Amino acid sequence: MADATGGPLRIAVIIGSTRDGRFGPVVADWITGHIAEREDMTADVVDLVETPLPTVFPAFGQTPSDEVVAQLGAVSPRLAEADAFVIVTPEYNHSFPAPLKNAIDWHNEQWHGKPVGFVSYGGLAGGLRAVEQLRVVLAELHAVTVRNTVSFHNYGEVFNADGKPSDPGCDVAAKALLDQLTWWGHALREARRARPYAV
I need a labelling partner for 48 at 20 to 30 A (CA). Which of 7, 28, 56, 86 fits? Predict the structure, then answer.
């Protein structure tokens, strides 16, 4: 259950790629650095490499095994406690990574009535096609995706050796994204407190 007493928003930053040699942690470190500079939010990084989830679901109506429950226990409570989300994702074959879809599908009410922002990276498209598909998926789960995104096109040429983008416009884009996420995060947290979200 998200905090109903006010205070900083709890942001779950989800690293969507599990591929060897992935760039996602660099991007996640950058956006969590921006979150750390703010007083209105805190970050909890959910790395799907560190918290792998099962890929075989129980039959409808069946209870997951103890092993599955234990694996979910490393992720599900953190998503439930989050007031909002930032998903860091690359683009694979015009879409988003399968482990990210798996993590989304294992959860339902954890997404309800909460805002989601995106930081994407890739080649010429900068991961934007992955983001557009994520918007459709998350709408089905009653989440609210914010308009602004941060997108890194040809990301290998954008970040310096310190893991920072060389273009200061990226920092401006991050602020715009987090400002929108803050507005929606507070508005929806207050709405859930006044009236529990009903599907």
Answer: 7
